[in-house]
Amino acid sequence: MKSAAHTYAEKAIQSIRSVEADPDCNNKDYGRLCLLFPSMVQVNGLRLTVAFFQSKGKSQKTLHQRYLQDLAATVGSAAWETGLSTNDMMDYRDLTRHVLQAAVWFKRYAEAILKVEAADGLDS
C-alpha cells in the first residue's frame, strides 16, 4: 500500500514532466506558481488562494488554472470540490493539509526539474 506522500509525489512528477514537455507552456512561470502556492495557502487560507488562482484564469486558460487542475488531480478531484464548498471545518482543514502536502512535491520538482529558484519573481 502506497502512502499519501508517495501518491502525491508520483502525480506531481507526472504533472511537472507534462509541463516540461509542453512547448506552449512557460515552464518558469508554472514553476514559480509551484513555489508561490504553498506560502499563499499558509498566509491566506486555501479558499482565498484557490479563488485568486481561479480569478486569474477567468477569461482564458492560464497557468494558474493548469496548476489548480494538476493539484486537484493529485489530491483527488472529488475531495477538492467537496472540501472547498463544505461548512465542516474538519473537512476543510483535512483538505488544506492534503493540498499542502501535495503542493510541497510540486515545489520540490519545480526546483529540481524546471530549475526555478525562490529568488525568481512573478511578473503577474
TrEMBL record:
Q: SUPFAM superfamilies from the xrefs?
A: AF1862-like
Provide the primary localization.
Answer: cytoplasm
Sorted alphabetically, the Gene Ontology BP terms of this entry are: defense response to virus
Which protein is depicted?
CRISPR type III-B/RAMP module-associated protein Cmr5
Q: Where in the cell is it found?
A: Cytoplasm
Look up the domain of life of the source.
Bacteria
- The scientific name of the source species is Paenibacillus riograndensis
For whether the record's keyword set contains Cytoplasm, the answer is yes
Entry keyword Cytoplasm: yes
**UniProt cross-references to Pfam families, sorted A to Z:** Cas_Cmr5
Gene Ontology CC entries for this record: cytoplasm
Q: Which family does it belong to?
A: Belongs to the CRISPR system Cmr5 family.
Report which residue ranges the record marks as coiled coil: none
InterPro entries reported in the protein's UniProt record: AF1862-like_dom_sf, CRISPR-assoc_prot_Cmr5
Taxonomic classification, please? Bacteria, Bacillati, Bacillota, Bacilli, Bacillales
The record's keywords, sorted A to Z, are: Antiviral defense, Cytoplasm
